[in-house]
Amino acid sequence: GQQVQQSPASLVLQEGENAELQCNFSSTATQLQWFYQSPGGSLVSLLSNPSGTKHTGRLTSTTVTKERRSSLHISSSQTTDSGTYLCAMNQGGSAKLIFGEGTKLTVSS
Amino acid sequence: EAAVTQSPRSKVAVTGGKVTLSCHQTNNHDYMYWYRQDTGHGLRLIHYSYVADSTEKGDIPDGYKASRPSQENFSLILELASLSQTAVYFCASSDVRDSGNTLYFGEGSRLIVV
Asked: B103 vs A43, B50, B113, CA distance in Å?
């Protein structure tokens, strides 16, 4: 079945450093979303990027559909960026999102 | 004001008991979902719904039922709770008109089965 693999599993940075998170998926995605899960557990959608490059604030996502990969770049990381970043994809017109296991980011001051 | 609210936020249930998790959304979205998250893992889809009075099986539906009595409400029912159903459950909604299918999540319901 469809699979989503994220790397690294965890990442520790000093405040101000940049983060690069990777997401690889086993089949062509028609929808690709990045989510942030806070240390308290709440989930929020960061951006949807099925192909190409998208920016929002300090976040940049690049998805290369035919290579079945997406990345999330966080520039000038802040301690408040700490949490888990989840990648999710689906195929065709399905509303079913398949999630990766996430990258846990820790930013220290 | 939170657009997707879940209740209860936390519950301890006994094995074999019935558990109902409720979800209410004010986003006016057609799609609603129930996911479960186990410690240190991503989310897995249990049931979802496109429209009121209709539900669809997700990837891990065994042991769960779902009910969508109205556009705003979506419940997850565990008829006979088991230890393996200890997890955090998230409800979400999305807009069928949104090509990106952005999901809006509730705060989660932590279920412990003893």
From this structure: 9, 13, 28
